[in-house]
């Protein structure tokens, strides 16, 4: 998993990576896929009986097929698939994956984790080789907010506490999830949209940590 085709398009593609059970019709991932021309789903398969290596392989295949910089928008167990993909591929910084939005990762290491989750443990601790934002809810039944923050630290992700919004899924009632769209725009900018490669880590961190509109203006008007 170490060689990739050369990019021939500067426009990033957003790949959604669902979690256990997939994402239904009212999930924000599905709504984004329907509304955004740049967004499509990674069909991992085995949605109810996930296998770590199978999911990582499916994700790797989709990334390889993308002829553009890739931005990942993962939810729940999909976040662990992304982390394991990064762990196993050792990609160069910012290419072919130029950034990621990681939403509501579950705690796969806690004693009472479901067997389907435990197969993805122990959670990788290696910093991700691309800019990323990790979003967590303060009352997510799948993970504590402190553990989510620990994952963000391990992965080098900018951490966002979304407040009490459950598992940040369809049941949370967030619908289109405008806040998530704004966070995605930050990741797109930090990922160097139009430049083929992510911005250097120090610049990317600055973009991820400020208002999305300000980030876009800084990037686009500054060039």
Structural class: alpha/beta
**Helix fraction by DSSP (H/I, runs of at least 4):** 25-40%
User: How much strand content do the residues show?
Assistant: 5-15%
| Helix/strand order, N-terminal first | EHEHEHEHEHEHHH
Unreliable spans: 1-8, 215-223
The shape, in one word, is globular
Rg (C-alpha, Å) = 16 Å
The biggest beta sheet is recorded as: 6 strands, parallel
Cα distance, first to last residue? Answer: 34 Å
**Average pLDDT across residues?**
90
Number of helices: 8
How many distinct beta strands?
Answer: 6
Task: Describe the protein's architecture and organization.
Helix 2 (52-65) packs across helix 3 and helix 6 runs antiparallel to helix 7. A 6-stranded parallel sheet has the order 2-1-3-4-5-6, with helices on both faces. The chain contains 8 helices and 6 strands. The longest helix has 14 residues, at 52-65. The chain starts with 12 loop residues before the first strand and ends with a helix. It is 36% helix and 13% strand. With 223 residues, it is α/β, with parallel strands linked by helices.
SSE blueprint:
Blueprint (H helix, E strand, L loop, with lengths): L12 E5 L10 H8 L3 E3 L10 H14 L4 E6 L1 H13 L7 E7 L11 H4 L13 E5 L8 H11 L2 E4 L16 H13 L10 H8 L3 H9 L3
Parallel strand pairs: 1-2, 1-3, 3-4, 4-5, 5-6
Provide the descriptors you would attach to this structure in a database record.
alpha/beta; 6 strands; disordered N terminus
């Amino acid at each position: 998993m170490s060689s990739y085709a050369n990019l021939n398009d500067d426009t990033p593609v957003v790949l959604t990576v669902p979690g256990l059970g997939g994402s239904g019709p009212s999930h924000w991932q599905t709504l984004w896929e329907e509304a955004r021309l740049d967004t499509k789903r990674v069909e991992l398969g085995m949605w109810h009986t996930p296998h770590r290596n199978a999911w990582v392989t499916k994700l790797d295949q989709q990334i390889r097929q993308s002829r553009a910089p890739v931005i990942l928008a993962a939810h729940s167990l999909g976040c662990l698939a992304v982390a394991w993909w990064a762990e196993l591929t050792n990609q160069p910084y910012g290419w072919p994956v130029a950034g990621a939005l990681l939403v509501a990762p579950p705690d796969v290491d806690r004693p009472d984790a479901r067997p389907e989750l435990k197969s993805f443990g122990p959670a990788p601790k290696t910093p991700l080789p691309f800019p990323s934002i990790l979003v967590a809810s303060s009352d997510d039944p799948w993970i504590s907010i402190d553990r989510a923050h620990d994952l963000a630290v391990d992965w080098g992700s900018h951490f966002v506490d979304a407040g009490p919004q459950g598992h940040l899924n369809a049941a949370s009632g967030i619908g289109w999830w405008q806040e998530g769209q704004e966070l995605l725009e930050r990741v797109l900018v930090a990922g160097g949209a139009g430049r083929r490669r992510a911005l250097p880590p120090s610049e990317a961190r600055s973009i991820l940590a400020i208002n999305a509109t300000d980030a876009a203006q800084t990037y686009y008007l500054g060039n």
